[in-house]
Design brief:
The chain is mainly beta. It contains 2 helices and 21 strands. The strands form 5 sheets. Strands 5, 6, 7, 9 and 12 form a 5-stranded mixed sheet that branches. A 5-stranded mixed sheet has the order 15-21-20-17-18, with no helix packed on it. A 4-stranded mixed sheet has the order 1-2-10-11, with no helix packed on it. The termini are far apart.
């Protein structure tokens, strides 16, 4: 048996090795938690986005905000996103809008992630009021959403984190003028001397199911309930409100401007399964719940 002194030295070396191993493991675990690669994640970003999308940054976040209240993200003028808006009457109903973008790409799959250079989505405003979020260069604007008279349409570019791209302290945007005719008259190209018959609401004929809702005096009719759909079905939501508001379909990020006393229709494809609320922004009323299986 080794002398007592030798045994004591061996025990001390073993204890020091165990302590060192414990410290090393603790540092590795702590490092994993900080970087988000193992352990508890410290970023709260959209599931499915990469670590680069969650932690990447570009430009300078300014204290100023755009007209809608979104912070401005300043980038150099050279290579900055650009957008122009063209408006053409549709042959059947309303107008077709085309966004001409430069140094920019639409990224609907990463909306909610961090800002990446030259990526994101757009907002469409009518006379300063947001009426839609755009994930591509084309958009059809139904005549029912535009009151009679002259109006200004504005499109503004946003990063995935919903900050507004900006150059020299100004949001990157484009604008176009639009004049809506009196009800019953078409903004498109008529054939013959008499006004064409009013076309059905865009998308209504292609819908597999139509839900009609009325909002009056703060009450929803019929009473809010679940609308069950099979995945892939097309749904048309026909809504008439006695006050101006905005309809929002959660989970699908679809919005529709509601003008007082005018029926408006939003058509969407139920391509996501789950339970999604349809509500109004201003009055905060739940209109229905979409249960997609």
């Amino acid at each position: 048996m080794p002398p007592r002194a030798a045994r004591g030295a061996t025990y001390r070396r073993t204890a020091r090795s165990a302590a060192l191993l414990t410290l090393t493991l603790a540092l590795l675990l702590a490092g994993g938690a900080v970087t988000g690669c193992g352990g508890r994640a410290t970023t709260h970003h959209k599931p499915g986005t990469s670590h680069e999308q969650a932690s990447g940054s570009v430009g300078t976040l300014l204290p100023a905000a755009d007209a809608a209240g979104h912070k401005l993200r300043e980038v150099p003028a050279e290579g900055a996103p650009e957008v122009q808006l063209a408006v053409r009457p549709d042959s059947e109903d309303g107008w077709n809008l085309q966004l001409g973008v430069k140094n920019f790409r639409f990224t609907p799959d990463s909306t909610g992630g961090a800002a990446l250079p030259g990526a994101g989505h757009a907002h469409l405003e009518l006379d300063g009021r947001k009426i839609a979020r755009l994930y591509g260069p084309w958009f059809h604007l139904p005549a029912a959403q535009v009151p009679e008279g002259a109006h200004t349409l504005t499109v503004r570019l946003y990063a995935d984190d919903h900050t507004a791209w900006a150059v020299s302290g100004k949001a990157v945007e484009g604008a176009a003028q639009l004049t809506a005719p009196a009800p019953g008259r078409s903004a498109g190209h008529g054939h013959g001397g008499s006004p064409p018959a009013q076309s059905p609401t865009p998308g209504q004929e292609q819908a597999d199911r139509t839900v009609t809702i009325t909002v009056r005096d703060g009450r929803v009719a019929p009473a809010p309930a679940r609308t069950e759909l099979r995945r892939g079905e097309r749904l048309a939501l026909r809504v008439t409100s006695d006050r101006a508001d905005t309809l929002h379909v959660h989970g699908y990020d679809r919005e529709l401007a509601l003008h007082a006393g005018q029926e408006a229709t939003l058509t969407l494809t139920a391509d996501r399964t789950g339970l999604f609320e349809v509500e109004t922004h201003e009055s905060k009323l739940v209109l229905t719940q979409l249960l997609v299986r």
